[in-house]
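User: Sequence in, structure out. Go.
Assistant: Echoing your sequence, followed by the structure tokens.
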Amino acid sequence: MNKIIAIVGMCGAGKSEATEFFEKRGFERVYFGAITFDEMKKRGLEPTQDNERKIREEFRASGDMAIYAKLNEEKVRKAYEKGNVVIESMYSWSEYKYIKEIFGDAFDVICIVVDRALRKERIANRPTRSLTSEEADKRDYTEIENIEKGGPISIADYYILNNGSMDELYSECEKIYNKIIK
């Protein structure tokens, strides 16, 4: 049976790096956030944190907190028919429930967690889309309060504490990979 995993966590936790790990093992990546970037490009908006937030909030203004899962459902289905899938940027509880209802036991969630101070340090020093400490706090609060981000984090099937090196993150991903792909 093919598997679908979603990598969840707060901004700067290491979700993209964990996603890359699974891609290198043959999982097809479905990036829910691509919809936001596609919409910004369509409107001629610069890819800034404020524009990203604006577009995300517009999509969710309908009250449908599963909108990103619904808009990406066909991509996930097609990828799943071919093999294993890794979802990046599944944020809301409603998105989780939507995907879980469709794919059931084929769907697992991996949560990447990092001590807050270290996560903020990493966010401040990343080469693209870096944030100040205040911007990181604002994004955290907005994501927790406005997009149900805590749900998938709290119900994850697997947790990785990512306070160490990239090699340590990959080692933890390898352990989970071996459990998922038996």
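User: And one key feature?
Assistant: The CA atoms of residues 92 and 147 lie 6 Å apart.
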